[in-house]
Fold this sequence. Notes:
Blueprint: H1 2-19, H2 25-38, H3 44-48, H4 54-72, H5 74-84, H6 89-104, H7 109-126, H8 135-145, H9 154-165, H10 177-198, E1 214-220, E2 242-249, E3 252-254, E4 268-273, H11 275-280, E5 287-290, E6 302-308, H12 324-328, E7 330-336, E8 356-361, H13 365-368, E9 374-375, H14 387-408, H15 414-427, H16 433-439, H17 442-461, H18 463-475, H19 480-497, H20 500-518, H21 522-534, H22 544-550, H23 557-583
Antiparallel strand pairs: 1-4, 1-5, 1-7, 2-3, 2-4, 6-8, 6-9, 7-8
Amino acid sequence: MIEFYIVIIGMIVMLSFLVFEIERPEIILPSTLLLFVMTGVITPQEAIRGFSNEGMLTIGLLFIIAGSIQNSGIVDHAFKKLLNRSTSRKHMLAKLLFPISFLSAFLNNTPIVIAFTPLVKKWCEDHHLAPSKFLIPISYATILGGTITIIGTSTNLVVHGLLLDSNLPGFSFFELGKIGVPITLIGLCYLIFFSSSLLPERGGTVNIETLREFTGEVLILDDFPFIQKTVEQARLRSLKGLFLVSIIREDETITPVSNTTLLKAHDRLIFTGDITTITELQSHKGLLLQSNGSSSFPKHHQLTEAVVSHHSSLLYKKIKDTNFRSRFNAAVIAVHRQNQRLKYKIGDIILKPGDILLLATGTDFYKKANTNDFYIAATLDKSMMTRKQTVNGWFSVALLGTMILLVTLGFITMLTGMAFVTVLLLSLRIVSPLQAKNAIQWNVLMVVSCSFGIGYAMIDSGVASFLADLLLHASKPFGLFAIIIAIYLLTNLFTEMMTNSAAAVLMFPIILEVSNTLDLDPTALAVTVTIAASASFATPIGYQTNLIVYGPGGYRFKDYLKVGIPLNILTMITTVILVYYFWL
Protein backbone atom coordinates (compact mmCIF):
# COMPACT_ATOMS: atom_id res chain seq x y z
CA MET A 1 0.00 0.00 0.00
CA ILE A 2 2.92 2.33 0.71
CA GLU A 3 3.98 2.07 -2.96
CA PHE A 4 0.57 3.43 -3.99
CA TYR A 5 1.04 6.63 -1.97
CA ILE A 6 4.67 7.04 -3.06
CA VAL A 7 3.61 6.94 -6.72
CA ILE A 8 0.60 9.25 -6.19
CA ILE A 9 2.73 11.86 -4.37
CA GLY A 10 5.59 11.42 -6.86
CA MET A 11 3.23 11.94 -9.81
CA ILE A 12 1.66 15.05 -8.26
CA VAL A 13 5.09 16.56 -7.59
CA MET A 14 6.30 15.62 -11.08
CA LEU A 15 3.27 17.18 -12.81
CA SER A 16 3.58 20.31 -10.65
CA PHE A 17 7.24 20.70 -11.59
CA LEU A 18 6.35 20.28 -15.28
CA VAL A 19 3.41 22.70 -15.19
CA PHE A 20 5.30 25.44 -13.30
CA GLU A 21 8.51 24.80 -15.29
CA ILE A 22 10.68 24.32 -12.19
CA GLU A 23 13.22 22.37 -14.25
CA ARG A 24 13.64 20.80 -17.67
CA PRO A 25 11.55 17.66 -18.41
CA GLU A 26 14.71 15.62 -19.02
CA ILE A 27 15.70 16.37 -15.41
CA ILE A 28 12.26 16.01 -13.80
CA LEU A 29 11.26 12.64 -15.29
CA PRO A 30 14.56 10.81 -14.65
CA SER A 31 14.51 12.13 -11.06
CA THR A 32 10.97 10.80 -10.59
CA LEU A 33 12.01 7.45 -12.05
CA LEU A 34 15.01 7.30 -9.73
CA LEU A 35 12.71 7.95 -6.75
CA PHE A 36 10.52 4.98 -7.71
CA VAL A 37 13.58 2.72 -8.08
CA MET A 38 15.10 3.79 -4.74
CA THR A 39 11.81 3.22 -2.90
CA GLY A 40 11.38 -0.23 -4.43
CA VAL A 41 8.23 0.59 -6.41
CA ILE A 42 9.86 -0.79 -9.58
CA THR A 43 12.99 -2.83 -10.21
CA PRO A 44 16.05 -1.42 -12.01
CA GLN A 45 15.22 -3.74 -14.91
CA GLU A 46 11.77 -2.18 -15.27
CA ALA A 47 13.28 1.31 -15.02
CA ILE A 48 15.55 0.80 -18.03
CA ARG A 49 13.18 -1.20 -20.23
CA GLY A 50 12.06 1.96 -22.00
CA PHE A 51 15.60 2.57 -23.27
CA SER A 52 15.52 -0.67 -25.28
CA ASN A 53 11.92 -0.44 -26.44
CA GLU A 54 11.43 -1.03 -30.17
CA GLY A 55 9.49 2.20 -30.58
CA MET A 56 12.25 4.22 -28.94
CA LEU A 57 14.99 2.71 -31.11
CA THR A 58 12.90 3.35 -34.20
CA ILE A 59 12.42 7.02 -33.25
CA GLY A 60 16.19 7.51 -32.94
CA LEU A 61 16.78 6.01 -36.40
CA LEU A 62 13.93 8.04 -37.91
CA PHE A 63 15.56 11.27 -36.71
CA ILE A 64 18.66 10.38 -38.76
CA ILE A 65 16.77 9.44 -41.95
CA ALA A 66 14.46 12.47 -41.84
CA GLY A 67 17.45 14.71 -41.09
CA SER A 68 19.28 13.53 -44.23
CA ILE A 69 16.29 14.49 -46.40
CA GLN A 70 15.76 17.82 -44.64
CA ASN A 71 19.43 18.82 -44.80
CA SER A 72 19.63 18.15 -48.54
CA GLY A 73 17.45 21.21 -49.20
CA ILE A 74 15.26 19.52 -51.83
CA VAL A 75 12.10 20.06 -49.78
CA ASP A 76 12.81 23.77 -49.28
CA HIS A 77 13.62 24.17 -52.97
CA ALA A 78 10.33 22.56 -54.02
CA PHE A 79 8.28 24.79 -51.75
CA LYS A 80 10.07 27.95 -52.91
CA LYS A 81 8.86 27.16 -56.43
CA LEU A 82 5.37 26.51 -55.09
CA LEU A 83 5.30 29.88 -53.32
CA ASN A 84 6.44 31.72 -56.42
CA ARG A 85 3.37 30.48 -58.30
CA SER A 86 0.83 31.44 -55.61
CA THR A 87 -1.14 34.68 -55.63
CA SER A 88 -4.27 34.86 -53.43
CA ARG A 89 -4.59 34.08 -49.72
CA LYS A 90 -6.94 31.07 -49.91
CA HIS A 91 -5.19 29.77 -53.01
CA MET A 92 -1.89 29.98 -51.16
CA LEU A 93 -3.27 28.24 -48.07
CA ALA A 94 -4.71 25.38 -50.12
CA LYS A 95 -1.51 24.92 -52.13
CA LEU A 96 0.62 25.00 -48.98
CA LEU A 97 -1.35 23.06 -46.39
CA PHE A 98 -2.11 19.90 -48.37
CA PRO A 99 1.50 19.12 -49.43
CA ILE A 100 2.88 20.18 -46.04
CA SER A 101 0.50 17.82 -44.19
CA PHE A 102 1.43 15.01 -46.61
CA LEU A 103 5.12 15.67 -46.01
CA SER A 104 4.58 15.61 -42.24
CA ALA A 105 3.18 12.09 -42.50
CA PHE A 106 6.72 10.89 -43.30
CA LEU A 107 9.12 13.50 -41.86
CA ASN A 108 9.58 15.19 -38.48
CA ASN A 109 7.30 18.24 -38.50
CA THR A 110 9.58 20.47 -36.40
CA PRO A 111 12.26 21.06 -39.08
CA ILE A 112 9.49 21.42 -41.70
CA VAL A 113 7.95 24.35 -39.80
CA ILE A 114 11.39 25.85 -39.04
CA ALA A 115 12.26 25.75 -42.76
CA PHE A 116 8.97 27.09 -44.12
CA THR A 117 8.32 29.87 -41.60
CA PRO A 118 10.86 32.33 -43.11
CA LEU A 119 9.89 31.36 -46.67
CA VAL A 120 6.21 32.07 -46.02
CA LYS A 121 6.99 35.24 -44.08
CA LYS A 122 9.04 36.65 -46.98
CA TRP A 123 6.30 35.69 -49.48
CA CYS A 124 3.77 37.56 -47.31
CA GLU A 125 5.98 40.66 -47.19
CA ASP A 126 6.42 40.60 -50.98
CA HIS A 127 2.65 40.34 -51.49
CA HIS A 128 1.71 42.81 -48.70
CA LEU A 129 -0.07 40.13 -46.66
CA ALA A 130 0.08 39.47 -42.90
CA PRO A 131 2.18 36.37 -41.97
CA SER A 132 -0.15 35.88 -38.98
CA LYS A 133 -2.81 34.62 -41.41
CA PHE A 134 -0.59 31.74 -42.54
CA LEU A 135 1.86 30.55 -39.86
CA ILE A 136 -0.58 28.99 -37.34
CA PRO A 137 -2.35 27.08 -40.16
CA ILE A 138 1.04 25.72 -41.28
CA SER A 139 1.80 24.51 -37.75
CA TYR A 140 -1.63 22.88 -37.42
CA ALA A 141 -1.32 21.24 -40.86
CA THR A 142 1.93 19.52 -39.85
CA ILE A 143 0.35 18.28 -36.60
CA LEU A 144 -2.64 16.85 -38.49
CA GLY A 145 -0.44 15.25 -41.15
CA GLY A 146 1.66 13.54 -38.48
CA THR A 147 -1.35 11.41 -37.50
CA ILE A 148 -1.56 9.65 -40.89
CA THR A 149 1.29 7.11 -40.61
CA ILE A 150 3.12 5.27 -37.87
CA ILE A 151 6.25 7.39 -38.48
CA GLY A 152 4.36 10.71 -38.64
CA THR A 153 5.34 11.64 -35.07
CA SER A 154 7.40 10.11 -32.28
CA THR A 155 4.15 9.64 -30.32
CA ASN A 156 2.83 7.17 -32.88
CA LEU A 157 5.98 5.07 -32.64
CA VAL A 158 6.03 5.22 -28.84
CA VAL A 159 2.48 3.86 -28.52
CA HIS A 160 3.31 1.23 -31.15
CA GLY A 161 6.28 0.18 -29.02
CA LEU A 162 4.13 0.06 -25.89
CA LEU A 163 1.63 -2.24 -27.59
CA LEU A 164 4.41 -4.59 -28.64
CA ASP A 165 5.89 -4.43 -25.14
CA SER A 166 2.51 -5.57 -23.74
CA ASN A 167 2.41 -8.55 -26.14
CA LEU A 168 -0.27 -6.87 -28.23
CA PRO A 169 -0.21 -6.33 -32.00
CA GLY A 170 1.23 -2.92 -32.80
CA PHE A 171 0.01 -0.53 -35.46
CA SER A 172 0.41 -1.35 -39.14
CA PHE A 173 2.10 1.39 -41.17
CA PHE A 174 -1.10 3.12 -42.31
CA GLU A 175 -3.49 1.93 -39.56
CA LEU A 176 -3.63 5.34 -37.91
CA GLY A 177 -4.58 6.75 -41.31
CA LYS A 178 -8.14 5.51 -40.73
CA ILE A 179 -8.38 8.43 -38.30
CA GLY A 180 -5.51 10.58 -39.56
CA VAL A 181 -6.71 11.07 -43.14
CA PRO A 182 -10.28 12.16 -42.21
CA ILE A 183 -9.19 14.53 -39.43
CA THR A 184 -6.51 15.99 -41.71
CA LEU A 185 -8.98 16.63 -44.55
CA ILE A 186 -11.59 18.11 -42.19
CA GLY A 187 -8.95 20.17 -40.38
CA LEU A 188 -7.41 21.55 -43.57
CA CYS A 189 -10.81 22.56 -44.95
CA TYR A 190 -11.54 24.34 -41.67
CA LEU A 191 -8.19 26.16 -41.81
CA ILE A 192 -8.53 27.18 -45.46
CA PHE A 193 -12.08 28.54 -45.17
CA PHE A 194 -12.27 29.84 -41.58
CA SER A 195 -8.81 30.52 -40.12
CA SER A 196 -8.36 33.86 -41.93
CA SER A 197 -11.42 35.35 -40.24
CA LEU A 198 -10.29 34.10 -36.81
CA LEU A 199 -6.62 35.08 -37.00
CA PRO A 200 -5.35 38.65 -36.50
CA GLU A 201 -3.80 40.89 -39.14
CA ARG A 202 -0.26 41.07 -37.75
CA GLY A 203 3.29 41.03 -39.02
CA GLY A 204 4.95 43.35 -41.53
CA THR A 205 3.00 46.58 -41.01
CA VAL A 206 1.43 46.59 -37.55
CA ASN A 207 0.58 49.23 -34.99
CA ILE A 208 2.35 49.60 -31.68
CA GLU A 209 -0.46 48.05 -29.63
CA THR A 210 -0.03 44.69 -31.37
CA LEU A 211 3.75 44.43 -31.15
CA ARG A 212 5.38 41.91 -28.86
CA GLU A 213 7.08 43.50 -25.88
CA PHE A 214 10.80 42.74 -25.73
CA THR A 215 12.86 43.68 -22.69
CA GLY A 216 16.18 45.38 -23.42
CA GLU A 217 18.93 46.98 -21.33
CA VAL A 218 20.68 50.30 -21.95
CA LEU A 219 23.73 51.65 -20.05
CA ILE A 220 24.11 55.42 -19.37
CA LEU A 221 27.68 56.50 -20.18
CA ASP A 222 29.58 59.47 -18.74
CA ASP A 223 28.91 61.59 -21.85
CA PHE A 224 25.11 61.27 -21.66
CA PRO A 225 23.84 64.89 -21.89
CA PHE A 226 21.01 64.36 -19.36
CA ILE A 227 23.00 63.12 -16.32
CA GLN A 228 21.46 64.57 -13.15
CA LYS A 229 18.37 65.45 -15.20
CA THR A 230 14.97 63.85 -14.76
CA VAL A 231 13.54 61.03 -16.87
CA GLU A 232 11.06 63.50 -18.33
CA GLN A 233 13.76 66.02 -19.25
CA ALA A 234 15.74 63.26 -20.99
CA ARG A 235 12.59 62.51 -23.06
CA LEU A 236 12.78 58.84 -22.09
CA ARG A 237 8.99 58.83 -21.61
CA SER A 238 8.30 59.94 -25.17
CA LEU A 239 10.10 57.16 -27.04
CA LYS A 240 7.69 55.68 -29.57
CA GLY A 241 6.72 52.11 -28.65
CA LEU A 242 9.01 51.91 -25.59
CA PHE A 243 8.33 51.96 -21.86
CA LEU A 244 10.94 52.49 -19.15
CA VAL A 245 10.22 49.66 -16.69
CA SER A 246 12.98 50.09 -14.14
CA ILE A 247 16.39 51.61 -13.41
CA ILE A 248 19.14 49.49 -11.87
CA ARG A 249 21.63 51.63 -9.90
CA GLU A 250 24.42 49.54 -8.36
CA ASP A 251 22.49 47.11 -6.11
CA GLU A 252 19.28 49.17 -6.09
CA THR A 253 16.32 48.62 -8.42
CA ILE A 254 14.06 51.63 -8.97
CA THR A 255 10.59 50.53 -10.08
CA PRO A 256 8.19 51.96 -10.98
CA VAL A 257 10.12 54.86 -12.52
CA SER A 258 8.57 58.31 -12.08
CA ASN A 259 9.01 61.27 -14.43
CA THR A 260 10.96 63.11 -11.71
CA THR A 261 13.55 60.35 -11.14
CA LEU A 262 17.08 61.74 -11.61
CA LEU A 263 19.41 59.89 -13.99
CA LYS A 264 23.01 59.11 -13.05
CA ALA A 265 26.05 57.85 -14.91
CA HIS A 266 26.27 54.02 -15.12
CA ASP A 267 22.54 53.61 -14.48
CA ARG A 268 21.11 50.62 -16.34
CA LEU A 269 17.77 51.40 -17.97
CA ILE A 270 15.40 48.48 -18.52
CA PHE A 271 13.05 49.15 -21.44
CA THR A 272 10.22 47.06 -22.80
CA GLY A 273 8.53 47.51 -26.17
CA ASP A 274 9.11 47.41 -29.92
CA ILE A 275 12.33 45.55 -30.79
CA THR A 276 13.21 47.96 -33.60
CA THR A 277 13.00 50.97 -31.27
CA ILE A 278 15.11 49.20 -28.65
CA THR A 279 17.92 48.66 -31.16
CA GLU A 280 17.67 52.31 -32.31
CA LEU A 281 18.56 53.48 -28.76
CA GLN A 282 22.15 52.65 -29.72
CA SER A 283 22.21 55.85 -31.84
CA HIS A 284 21.46 58.16 -28.87
CA LYS A 285 24.58 59.87 -27.51
CA GLY A 286 25.65 58.46 -24.15
CA LEU A 287 23.36 55.43 -24.34
CA LEU A 288 24.89 52.00 -24.94
CA LEU A 289 22.70 49.02 -25.78
CA GLN A 290 23.75 46.07 -23.62
CA SER A 291 23.89 42.42 -24.59
CA ASN A 292 24.22 39.51 -22.19
CA GLY A 293 26.71 40.92 -19.72
CA SER A 294 28.59 43.15 -22.20
CA SER A 295 28.19 45.87 -24.80
CA SER A 296 30.17 44.16 -27.58
CA PHE A 297 28.48 42.43 -30.50
CA PRO A 298 29.94 39.80 -32.84
CA LYS A 299 31.84 41.19 -35.81
CA HIS A 300 29.67 41.60 -38.96
CA HIS A 301 26.62 40.80 -36.87
CA GLN A 302 23.01 40.59 -38.01
CA LEU A 303 19.77 40.58 -36.01
CA THR A 304 18.15 37.18 -35.52
CA GLU A 305 15.08 36.03 -33.60
CA ALA A 306 15.34 32.66 -31.85
CA VAL A 307 12.80 30.86 -29.65
CA VAL A 308 14.12 28.89 -26.64
CA SER A 309 12.98 25.30 -27.18
CA HIS A 310 11.31 22.96 -24.70
CA HIS A 311 14.49 20.87 -24.60
CA SER A 312 17.13 23.61 -24.51
CA SER A 313 20.21 23.14 -22.35
CA LEU A 314 19.84 26.86 -21.47
CA LEU A 315 16.54 26.45 -19.62
CA TYR A 316 16.21 27.79 -16.06
CA LYS A 317 19.67 29.38 -16.17
CA LYS A 318 20.56 33.07 -16.03
CA ILE A 319 21.71 34.32 -19.42
CA LYS A 320 25.02 35.46 -17.93
CA ASP A 321 25.68 31.91 -16.67
CA THR A 322 25.20 30.21 -20.06
CA ASN A 323 28.45 31.34 -21.78
CA PHE A 324 26.12 32.46 -24.56
CA ARG A 325 28.63 34.59 -26.49
CA SER A 326 31.35 31.93 -26.64
CA ARG A 327 28.97 29.04 -27.31
CA PHE A 328 26.97 30.59 -30.15
CA ASN A 329 28.94 33.67 -31.28
CA ALA A 330 25.83 35.69 -30.49
CA ALA A 331 24.76 38.34 -28.01
CA VAL A 332 21.31 38.60 -26.42
CA ILE A 333 20.00 42.14 -26.99
CA ALA A 334 16.41 41.72 -25.81
CA VAL A 335 14.01 39.07 -24.45
CA HIS A 336 10.26 38.64 -24.90
CA ARG A 337 8.13 36.49 -22.59
CA GLN A 338 4.40 36.07 -23.10
CA ASN A 339 2.21 38.01 -20.65
CA GLN A 340 5.18 39.12 -18.54
CA ARG A 341 6.98 42.46 -18.28
CA LEU A 342 10.56 41.59 -17.30
CA LYS A 343 12.31 44.05 -14.98
CA TYR A 344 15.81 42.60 -14.82
CA LYS A 345 19.15 43.16 -16.46
CA ILE A 346 19.53 41.03 -19.58
CA GLY A 347 22.19 38.87 -17.94
CA ASP A 348 20.00 38.17 -14.90
CA ILE A 349 16.97 36.92 -16.87
CA ILE A 350 16.34 33.21 -16.25
CA LEU A 351 15.39 31.58 -19.56
CA LYS A 352 12.16 29.60 -19.94
CA PRO A 353 10.61 27.60 -22.82
CA GLY A 354 9.07 29.89 -25.42
CA ASP A 355 11.20 32.94 -24.58
CA ILE A 356 11.93 34.87 -27.78
CA LEU A 357 15.49 36.21 -27.92
CA LEU A 358 16.59 39.09 -30.12
CA LEU A 359 20.19 38.24 -30.97
CA ALA A 360 23.11 39.98 -32.61
CA THR A 361 24.61 36.94 -34.34
CA GLY A 362 27.89 36.28 -36.07
CA THR A 363 28.16 34.62 -39.47
CA ASP A 364 28.69 31.15 -37.98
CA PHE A 365 25.72 31.28 -35.59
CA TYR A 366 23.64 28.81 -37.61
CA LYS A 367 26.45 26.26 -37.47
CA LYS A 368 26.91 26.64 -33.72
CA ALA A 369 23.24 26.84 -32.71
CA ASN A 370 21.76 23.43 -31.91
CA THR A 371 18.10 22.96 -32.86
CA ASN A 372 17.66 21.32 -29.45
CA ASP A 373 18.42 24.74 -27.92
CA PHE A 374 16.50 27.03 -30.29
CA TYR A 375 13.74 27.10 -32.82
CA ILE A 376 15.24 29.53 -35.35
CA ALA A 377 12.87 30.75 -38.03
CA ALA A 378 15.43 32.56 -40.15
CA THR A 379 16.14 32.29 -43.84
CA LEU A 380 19.12 30.13 -44.65
CA ASP A 381 20.61 30.34 -48.11
CA LYS A 382 19.76 27.13 -49.90
CA SER A 383 20.30 28.64 -53.37
CA MET A 384 23.78 27.14 -53.52
CA MET A 385 22.53 23.57 -53.33
CA THR A 386 25.09 21.36 -54.97
CA ARG A 387 24.24 18.60 -57.42
CA LYS A 388 25.60 16.10 -54.90
CA GLN A 389 23.22 17.35 -52.18
CA THR A 390 20.27 17.06 -54.56
CA VAL A 391 21.20 13.52 -55.60
CA ASN A 392 21.77 12.47 -51.98
CA GLY A 393 18.43 13.99 -51.00
CA TRP A 394 16.46 12.13 -53.65
CA PHE A 395 18.35 8.92 -52.85
CA SER A 396 17.31 9.27 -49.19
CA VAL A 397 13.71 9.80 -50.29
CA ALA A 398 13.88 6.68 -52.48
CA LEU A 399 15.29 4.62 -49.61
CA LEU A 400 12.57 5.82 -47.24
CA GLY A 401 9.89 5.05 -49.84
CA THR A 402 11.25 1.56 -50.44
CA MET A 403 11.39 0.88 -46.71
CA ILE A 404 7.78 2.05 -46.28
CA LEU A 405 6.64 -0.26 -49.11
CA LEU A 406 8.44 -3.29 -47.66
CA VAL A 407 7.07 -2.61 -44.15
CA THR A 408 3.53 -2.11 -45.49
CA LEU A 409 3.68 -5.40 -47.42
CA GLY A 410 4.94 -7.18 -44.30
CA PHE A 411 8.35 -8.25 -45.63
CA ILE A 412 10.30 -6.54 -42.82
CA THR A 413 9.59 -4.96 -39.46
CA MET A 414 9.71 -1.21 -38.92
CA LEU A 415 12.88 -1.40 -36.79
CA THR A 416 14.68 -3.63 -39.31
CA GLY A 417 13.78 -1.31 -42.17
CA MET A 418 14.90 1.82 -40.32
CA ALA A 419 18.16 0.18 -39.25
CA PHE A 420 18.93 -0.97 -42.82
CA VAL A 421 18.29 2.50 -44.30
CA THR A 422 20.38 4.20 -41.59
CA VAL A 423 23.33 1.82 -42.09
CA LEU A 424 23.15 2.39 -45.86
CA LEU A 425 23.13 6.19 -45.46
CA LEU A 426 26.16 6.02 -43.14
CA SER A 427 28.02 3.48 -45.33
CA LEU A 428 27.57 5.60 -48.47
CA ARG A 429 28.61 8.71 -46.49
CA ILE A 430 25.36 10.50 -47.32
CA VAL A 431 25.14 11.09 -43.57
CA SER A 432 28.28 11.52 -41.45
CA PRO A 433 28.48 10.13 -37.90
CA LEU A 434 28.47 13.72 -36.57
CA GLN A 435 25.36 14.61 -38.60
CA ALA A 436 23.65 11.46 -37.32
CA LYS A 437 24.52 12.37 -33.73
CA ASN A 438 23.22 15.95 -34.15
CA ALA A 439 20.01 14.81 -35.87
CA ILE A 440 18.93 12.68 -32.91
CA GLN A 441 16.96 14.64 -30.30
CA TRP A 442 18.48 13.00 -27.23
CA ASN A 443 16.33 15.05 -24.86
CA VAL A 444 13.17 13.59 -26.41
CA LEU A 445 14.51 10.04 -26.14
CA MET A 446 15.45 10.58 -22.49
CA VAL A 447 12.03 11.95 -21.53
CA VAL A 448 10.06 9.24 -23.29
CA SER A 449 12.32 6.38 -22.14
CA CYS A 450 11.89 7.46 -18.53
CA SER A 451 8.15 7.74 -19.07
CA PHE A 452 8.06 4.00 -19.75
CA GLY A 453 9.49 3.28 -16.30
CA ILE A 454 7.03 5.69 -14.68
CA GLY A 455 4.25 3.87 -16.51
CA TYR A 456 5.40 0.57 -15.00
CA ALA A 457 5.38 2.22 -11.57
CA MET A 458 1.76 3.26 -12.11
CA ILE A 459 0.82 -0.33 -12.98
CA ASP A 460 2.81 -2.08 -10.22
CA SER A 461 1.59 0.27 -7.48
CA GLY A 462 -2.07 0.08 -8.46
CA VAL A 463 -2.27 3.79 -9.36
CA ALA A 464 -3.17 2.97 -12.98
CA SER A 465 -6.01 0.73 -11.82
CA PHE A 466 -7.20 3.43 -9.38
CA LEU A 467 -7.23 6.14 -12.08
CA ALA A 468 -8.95 3.80 -14.53
CA ASP A 469 -11.68 3.10 -11.96
CA LEU A 470 -12.15 6.85 -11.42
CA LEU A 471 -12.43 7.44 -15.14
CA LEU A 472 -14.93 4.58 -15.56
CA HIS A 473 -16.97 5.65 -12.54
CA ALA A 474 -17.33 9.17 -13.95
CA SER A 475 -18.07 8.25 -17.58
CA LYS A 476 -19.54 4.71 -17.68
CA PRO A 477 -23.14 5.77 -16.84
CA PHE A 478 -23.14 7.86 -20.03
CA GLY A 479 -22.08 5.00 -22.31
CA LEU A 480 -19.06 3.88 -24.33
CA PHE A 481 -18.84 7.15 -26.26
CA ALA A 482 -18.41 9.03 -22.98
CA ILE A 483 -15.57 6.70 -21.92
CA ILE A 484 -13.68 7.32 -25.18
CA ILE A 485 -14.27 11.09 -24.88
CA ALA A 486 -13.00 11.02 -21.27
CA ILE A 487 -9.83 9.20 -22.35
CA TYR A 488 -9.33 11.68 -25.20
CA LEU A 489 -9.81 14.74 -22.96
CA LEU A 490 -7.54 13.42 -20.20
CA THR A 491 -4.77 12.70 -22.71
CA ASN A 492 -5.24 16.14 -24.28
CA LEU A 493 -4.93 17.73 -20.82
CA PHE A 494 -1.70 15.81 -20.10
CA THR A 495 -0.18 16.78 -23.45
CA GLU A 496 -0.66 20.48 -22.62
CA MET A 497 1.40 19.98 -19.44
CA MET A 498 4.25 17.83 -20.79
CA THR A 499 5.56 16.45 -24.07
CA ASN A 500 3.00 14.63 -26.21
CA SER A 501 4.96 11.36 -26.18
CA ALA A 502 5.26 11.41 -22.39
CA ALA A 503 1.51 12.07 -22.10
CA ALA A 504 0.77 9.02 -24.26
CA VAL A 505 3.09 6.82 -22.19
CA LEU A 506 1.48 7.89 -18.91
CA MET A 507 -2.02 7.27 -20.29
CA PHE A 508 -1.16 3.84 -21.67
CA PRO A 509 -1.35 1.85 -18.40
CA ILE A 510 -4.68 3.53 -17.64
CA ILE A 511 -6.24 2.50 -20.97
CA LEU A 512 -4.91 -1.05 -20.53
CA GLU A 513 -6.83 -1.29 -17.25
CA VAL A 514 -9.95 0.18 -18.87
CA SER A 515 -9.79 -2.25 -21.81
CA ASN A 516 -9.34 -5.22 -19.44
CA THR A 517 -12.22 -4.12 -17.22
CA LEU A 518 -14.65 -3.55 -20.10
CA ASP A 519 -13.25 -6.28 -22.37
CA LEU A 520 -12.55 -3.76 -25.14
CA ASP A 521 -10.02 -3.92 -27.94
CA PRO A 522 -6.94 -2.15 -26.46
CA THR A 523 -5.98 -0.96 -29.96
CA ALA A 524 -9.10 1.24 -30.04
CA LEU A 525 -8.11 3.07 -26.88
CA ALA A 526 -4.44 3.18 -27.94
CA VAL A 527 -5.46 4.93 -31.18
CA THR A 528 -7.56 7.41 -29.17
CA VAL A 529 -4.61 8.24 -26.92
CA THR A 530 -2.21 8.53 -29.88
CA ILE A 531 -4.38 11.04 -31.72
CA ALA A 532 -5.31 13.00 -28.57
CA ALA A 533 -1.65 13.32 -27.54
CA SER A 534 -0.76 14.94 -30.87
CA ALA A 535 -3.89 17.05 -31.43
CA SER A 536 -2.77 20.04 -29.38
CA PHE A 537 -4.00 23.22 -31.04
CA ALA A 538 -5.30 25.48 -28.28
CA THR A 539 -2.02 26.85 -26.83
CA PRO A 540 1.42 27.84 -28.15
CA ILE A 541 3.13 25.61 -25.57
CA GLY A 542 1.20 22.39 -26.23
CA TYR A 543 3.16 21.46 -29.35
CA GLN A 544 6.61 22.64 -30.39
CA THR A 545 5.58 23.73 -33.90
CA ASN A 546 3.04 26.10 -32.33
CA LEU A 547 5.89 27.64 -30.36
CA ILE A 548 8.07 28.04 -33.47
CA VAL A 549 5.53 30.23 -35.31
CA TYR A 550 4.52 32.14 -32.16
CA GLY A 551 7.27 34.75 -32.49
CA PRO A 552 7.48 35.27 -36.28
CA GLY A 553 3.67 35.53 -36.53
CA GLY A 554 3.43 38.16 -33.78
CA TYR A 555 0.78 36.03 -32.08
CA ARG A 556 -0.79 36.32 -28.67
CA PHE A 557 -1.94 33.44 -26.48
CA LYS A 558 -5.62 34.13 -27.26
CA ASP A 559 -5.01 33.73 -31.02
CA TYR A 560 -4.34 30.02 -30.49
CA LEU A 561 -7.48 29.69 -28.40
CA LYS A 562 -9.68 31.34 -31.05
CA VAL A 563 -8.59 29.18 -33.95
CA GLY A 564 -7.41 26.10 -32.01
CA ILE A 565 -10.40 25.25 -29.79
CA PRO A 566 -12.82 24.70 -32.73
CA LEU A 567 -10.17 22.52 -34.39
CA ASN A 568 -9.70 20.58 -31.14
CA ILE A 569 -13.45 19.93 -30.98
CA LEU A 570 -13.67 18.89 -34.64
CA THR A 571 -10.72 16.51 -34.20
CA MET A 572 -12.13 14.98 -31.01
CA ILE A 573 -15.61 14.37 -32.44
CA THR A 574 -14.21 12.83 -35.64
CA THR A 575 -11.76 10.64 -33.73
CA VAL A 576 -14.32 9.29 -31.26
CA ILE A 577 -16.84 8.44 -34.00
CA LEU A 578 -14.25 6.71 -36.21
CA VAL A 579 -12.66 4.78 -33.32
CA TYR A 580 -16.12 3.47 -32.41
CA TYR A 581 -16.85 2.58 -36.06
CA PHE A 582 -13.55 0.84 -36.90
CA TRP A 583 -12.53 -0.87 -33.65
CA LEU A 584 -15.49 -1.24 -31.26
